[in-house]
Amino acid sequence: MADLSIDFCGIKSPNPFWLASAPPTDKAYNVVRAFEAGWGGVVWKTLGEDPPAVNVSSRYSALHGKNREVIGFNNIELITDRSLEINLREITAVKKAWPDRALVVSMMLPCEEAPWREILPLVEATGADGIELNFGCPHGMPERGMGAAVGQQPDLIEQVTRWCKTYTRLPVIVKLTPNITDVRAPARAALAGGADAVSLINTINSITHLDLDRMVAFPAVGNASTHGGYCGTAVKPIALNMVAEIARDPMTKGLPISGIGGIGNWRDAAEFIALGAGSVQVCTAAMLHGFRIVEEMKDGLSRWMDSKGYDNIAAFSRKAVPNTTDWKYLDMNYQVIAHIDQDKCIQCGRCHVACEDTSHQAIARLVDGNARKYEVIEPECVGCNLCEITCPVEGCITMVPQQTGKPYMNWTQDPRNPRAEVTLDEA
Ligand SMILES: Cc1cc2nc3c(=O)[nH]c(=O)nc-3n(C[C@H](O)[C@H](O)[C@H](O)COP(=O)(O)O)c2cc1C
Ligand code: SF4
Ligand code: SF4
Prior knowledge:
The longest helix has 16 residues, at about 295-310. Helix 3 (about 115-125) crosses helix 5. By secondary structure, the chain is α/β, with parallel strands linked by helices. The protein has helices at about 30-35, 85-95, 115-125, 150, 155-165, 185-190, 235-245, 265-275, 285-290, 295-310, 350-360, 385-390; strands spanning about 5-10, 10-15, 15-20, 40-45, 60-65, 70-75, 100-105, 130-135, 170-175, 195-200, 205, 210, 215, 230, 255-260, 275-280, 335-340, 365-370, 370-375, 395-400. Helix content is about 30%, strand content about 20%. The radius of gyration is 24 Å and the shape is globular. The protein folds into two domains: about 5-315, Alpha-Beta Barrel (TIM Barrel); about 325-400, 2-Layer Sandwich (Alpha-Beta Plaits).
C-alpha cells in the first residue's frame, strides 16, 4: 500500500491532509476530534495579540447551486477570538497528546518587531512543529494594517518573515493572499526573507449576493455588510493556478508549497500535489461535511497511488509542473475534433446551439420527420471543447486527437507569427 506520510519543510505528518487555519482548528476540542478522525495535521486558527478579536453576527454567506450544493463560501470572520494564553495552553496539551501529527500555529501580529520577538518564543515553547504567517486575511484585519495588507506588499512580507526566522527555530510557512496581480512577487519575497515554505491561497475578496428587498449584501450585520473572503469549490481553479505559478517560477523553484483552496476530495488533493504542493489544507469542505471526509480522502488517494504505482507522495509530487507552460510553447500543430457517440446522445440539441451561436457552426442538426440527429462537421470543428462541456451526457461527446503528420511547432516557430521571438532551443 502507498505510503502517504510526508516531510514538509521538516514537519512530519502521517498523511498530507491538514486542516487549514479556520473554525475547524479553533480550539483543542475540534483539533482532537479531527486527529481522531485521521487528519495528518492542522494549522491552528490564527493567533493574535491580546485582547482577542471580536466578531460580528452574522458571518457567513454562500453561493448555492441548483440543488442547494455550496459552490462557494464567504466569511467575514476575524482571527481567533480567544486569548493567547488559552490558545497556547491548549496547543501545548494537544501536541503532547498527538506527537505524530503536524501542528502548525498560524499567527498575525502588527508589522513591528517587538510583538514578534515577544510572542514567537511562547509559541515555540508549546512544542508546535511550525508557524504559518497569515498574510492573507482579506477582511477586517487589513483595515488594521495586518493580513492581506501585508501580503500585498512584498517588502513587508520579507521583513516580517526575517523577524520570524530571527526569533524562532521553527519552520516558517508564509500564507499568501490571492488578492494580488502576480502571486510570484510575494512568494519571492517570502523566500528572500528566509521562509521555509509558502501556503496558498487564503480567501478571495467577495460579495456573494444581495437581499434586494433590504438592499444589503449577505452576510448582513443589521442593515449593512462588507466584503468577505471567498473559498470552497469555486476557488479551486484560481488556487491551482497560483500554486503552479510558484512551482514553475525559476526564482522559487523547489520552495515547498502547502496547497489550499477548494479541496474537497482525494482527486483535488492529487491535483494540487501534482502541480507543486507538498501538503494540502482543507477548510470549507470540512466545515460543510465534517471531519470524517478525511477517510475518503486518504483511502481514495492511497488506492489511486497504488493503481499508478506511486509508492509515496514524492513519486508524483510536481509531476504535472513541467507540462504547465506559457501559451507560446503550446503545439500549434496539435488538433482535436469533437466526436458524438450516437448511442449515448439524447438529442437535446445543446451542443448544436452552443456551437451554432457562439463557436464555429460545426454541429449539424439533421431533421427527418420527428427524428433529430446531431453530427459534427469535421472540417469546421476547431476543437474548442465547448460542445463536450455543454453536453449533459457524460462521455457522449469526446475530443479525438487527429493524426496531422505535422511535427511539434510552437508559436515562437510559427511562420504565421509576425514577431517570432525565440527558437525551440531557447524555449
Ligand atoms: C470561516 C473562515 C475563517 C477563516 N479564518 C482563517 C484564519 O483565521 N486564518 C487563516 O489563515 N485563514 C483563515 N481562513 C481561510 C482558510 O484557512 C483557507 O485558506 C480558505 O478557506 C481556502 O480553503 P478552502 O477552500 O478549503 O476553504 C478562514 C476561512 C473561513 C471559511
Ligand atoms: S469542439 Fe467547438 S467547434 Fe468543434 S463542434 Fe464542438 S463546439 Fe463546435
Ligand atoms: S449535447 Fe450531447 S446529448 Fe445533447 S444533442 Fe449534443 S451530443 Fe446529444
